[in-house]
């Protein structure tokens, strides 16, 4: 008979043989014992934690000729056929290679037929998250109301990819990573059955490398057994799994303790030259310093040690490091591990991490000359500020208002902040434009304004969306902004100014100088200009022009016309629209 790997030969055939997952086993066994099994189950969890094995054991216990029982007998023809995979009523379906809706429809069509030689038809769908959306939709109705003889068991490593409508119709069981102690116990049973001797440290190395997966542990155990021969040694396990031995860790920790950078970097370079993965090395270093921290803070919990043994040399080394320093080491290595994922120079990161750890002092902070050194003068300033705050709080608690001096300390900063965020209105430039402003010039700009906006950058045109040209002379014009913040942003944007001038030059043939002003500022400057230049009487006379004055009104600058319209009584303006200006006479009472 052909050789079979350990993880296939020693696959659990009963709930008692399963490692870990006590909550899953107890719930399923109680349901079998009280005949309260459901029609759909969802087994989710990391790889190699027993999801498919639990599904097969549950199918055997459900269909066992001596059951349903807490444990399958594994002796009756039904149990043996399910173990061998020849029972036609227990269907294993791999969704990773059969994800199309046609395969699911085939299941739906056959599920209504009664089982041929078992009590229930059990469908075990592995990697169910790989099904397509149409396949999930086809499975949904059958999963909701299956025939009484059908049971569905869905297994997945990524339950978040399943539709909520599927999850809500299943009893969900979350399989947890198997502990190192449970993995070691199972490996001892396998090795005893295979008559292979092994060092305890070798089993610990394999269990730590398996990261909670029993299948991974048995696969590595099979590989180490093939490499070692008659006895599994720690050296063989370290070599096959790519882990680092505790002796190297001890030497590296001594170099960090004595702050010998050359020794630490040489050891690191040797490990990388031997083919050790840098990311795995960072993870092992984190676990090593975690073990030292455990030896220092809780020496009685030696069973929780993962990389090192409870040797006297490691106990003394753990007490040589301060707890804060070990915390700092773990923090540095954790950040380094995250940064290495996005870089092609992982070796540089791990070397930098070792140098940072060497430059730490024994309390976990930066050593002298490092960036964490505190200036004594800064300490004095902080203390004086703390005293001042305490005095102010005491005065407020006693109902005493702060002194003028304390208010004056904060007031200039507030005023400075306000003035720095306000826009200074260029009154002189606006007056120069108004002196030479004509109706013809502003009409030219307004006619080309919409087309010019389409030629500018989208960010610039968005900033100028709430603007309006209000007055223009032969070489400049005033641009009014609805909001002051937009006016401030535009005035500080040099690329917008140059882009606006270039767009106007392309449309009008003139390179206008643009003067920015917010709406409130524009109204004040315009009113002041009209008053200072004696134009207010002219504007009052133009409210009701005679036929002889119509041509003069047509030549009036647009900003004057707008001022007149804004000062006109809305009732008078409405009457003029309805009956005409020549028929309206306004009398002031």
UniProtKB/TrEMBL annotation:
Belongs to the DnaX/STICHEL family. Coiled coil: none annotated. It comes from the Bacteria. Keywords: ATP-binding, DNA replication, DNA-directed DNA polymerase, Metal-binding, Nucleotide-binding, Nucleotidyltransferase, Transferase, Zinc. It catalyses: DNA(n) + a 2'-deoxyribonucleoside 5'-triphosphate = DNA(n+1) + diphosphate. Residues 37-179 form the AAA+ ATPase domain. Residues 538-547 have a biased composition (Basic and acidic residues). The keyword Aminoacyl-tRNA synthetase does not apply. Its EC number is 2.7.7.7. This is DNA-directed DNA polymerase. The keyword Transport does not apply. Pfam families: DNA_pol3_delta2 (PF13177), DNA_pol3_gamma3 (PF12169), DNAX_ATPase_lid (PF22608). InterPro entries: AAA+_ATPase, ClpA/B, DNA_pol3_clamp-load_cplx_C, DNA_pol_III_gamma-3, DNA_pol_III_sug/sutau_N, DNA_Rep/Repair_Clamp_Loader, HLD_clamp_pol_III_gamma_tau, P-loop_NTPase. SUPFAM superfamilies: P-loop containing nucleoside triphosphate hydrolases (SSF52540), post-AAA+ oligomerization domain-like (SSF48019). It is an enzyme of class 2 (transferase).
């Amino acid at each position: 008979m052909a050789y079979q790997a350990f993880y296939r030969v020693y696959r659990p055939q009963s709930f008692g043989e399963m490692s870990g997952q006590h909550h899953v086993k107890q719930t399923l066994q109680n349901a079998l014992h009280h005949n309260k099994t459901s029609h759909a189950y969802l087994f989710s969890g990391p790889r190699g934690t027993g999801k498919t094995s639990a599904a097969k054991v549950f199918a055997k216990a459900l269909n066992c000729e001596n059951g349903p029982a807490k444990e399958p007998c594994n002796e009756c023809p039904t149990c043996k056929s399910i173990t061998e995979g020849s029972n036609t009523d227990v269907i294993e379906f791999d969704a990773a290679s059969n994800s199309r809706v046609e395969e699911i429809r085939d299941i739906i069509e056959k599920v209504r037929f009664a089982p041929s030689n078992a009590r229930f038809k059990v469908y075990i769908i592995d990697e169910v998250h790989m099904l397509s959306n149409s396949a999930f939709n086809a499975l949904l109705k059958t999963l909701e109301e299956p025939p009484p003889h059908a049971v569905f068991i869905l297994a997945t490593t990524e339950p978040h990819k399943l539709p909520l409508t599927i999850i809500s119709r299943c009893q969900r069981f979350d399989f947890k990573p198997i502990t190192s102690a449970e993995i070691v116990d199972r490996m001892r049973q396998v090795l005893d059955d295979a008559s292979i001797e092994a060092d305890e440290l070798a089993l610990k190395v394999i269990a730590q490398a398996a990261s909670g997966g029993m299948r991974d542990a048995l696969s590595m155990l099979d590989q180490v057994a093939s490499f070692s021969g008659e006895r599994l040694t720690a050296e063989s396990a370290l070599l096959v799994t790519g882990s680092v031995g505790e002796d190297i860790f001890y030497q590296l920790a001594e170099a960090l303790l004595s702050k010998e950078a050359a020794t630490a970097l040489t050891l690191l370079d040797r490990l990388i030259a031997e083919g050790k993965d840098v990311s795995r090395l960072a993870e092992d270093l984190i676990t090593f310093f975690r073990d030292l921290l455990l030896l220092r803070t809780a020496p009685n919990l030696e069973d929780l040690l993962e990389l090192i043994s409870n040797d006297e040399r490691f106990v003394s080394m753990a007490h040589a490091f301060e707890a804060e320093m070990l915390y700092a080491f773990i923090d540095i290595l954790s950040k380094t591990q995250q940064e290495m994922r996005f870089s092609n120079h992982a070796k540089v990161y791990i070397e930098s991490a070792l140098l940072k750890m060497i430059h730490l002092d024994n309390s976990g902070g930066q050593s002298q000359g490092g960036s964490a050194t505190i200036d004594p003068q800064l300490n004095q300033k902080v203390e004086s500020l703390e005293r001042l705050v305490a005095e102010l709080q005491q005065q407020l608690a006693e109902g005493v208002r702060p002194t003028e001096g304390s208010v004056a300390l904060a007031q200039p900063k507030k005023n400075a902040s306000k003035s720095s965020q306000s826009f200074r209105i260029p009154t002189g430039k606006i007056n120069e434009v108004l002196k030479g402003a004509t109706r013809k010039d502003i009409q030219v700009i307004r006619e080309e304004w919409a087309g010019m906006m389409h030629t500018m950058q989208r960010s610039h045109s968005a900033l100028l969306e709430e603007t309006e040209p209000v007055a223009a002379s032969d070489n400049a014009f005033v641009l009014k902004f609805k909001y002051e913040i937009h006016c401030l942003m535009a005035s500080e944007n040099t690329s917008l100014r140059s882009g606006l001038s270039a767009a106007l030059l392309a449309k009008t043939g003139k390179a206008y100088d643009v003067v920015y002003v917010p709406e409130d500022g524009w109204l004040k400057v315009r009113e002041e200009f009209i008053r200072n230049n004696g134009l207010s009487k002219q504007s009052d006379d133009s409210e009701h022009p005679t036929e002889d004055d119509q041509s003069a009104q047509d030549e009036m600058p647009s900003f004057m016309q707008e001022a007149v319209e804004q000062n006109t009584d809305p009732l008078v303006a409405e009457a003029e629209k309805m009956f005409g200006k020549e028929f309206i006479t306004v009398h002031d009472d």
